[in-house]
Amino acid sequence: MDQGKRMKLYKLLNSDGEVYESAEKGQLGGNSREKIYGTLDCTAANNALGNNIYENYRVFFANESVAIAAGYRPCGRCLKSEYKKWKESQEHPELQG
Question: Gene3D superfamilies from the entry (predicted)?
Answer without folding.
Answer: DNA Methylphosphotriester Repair Domain
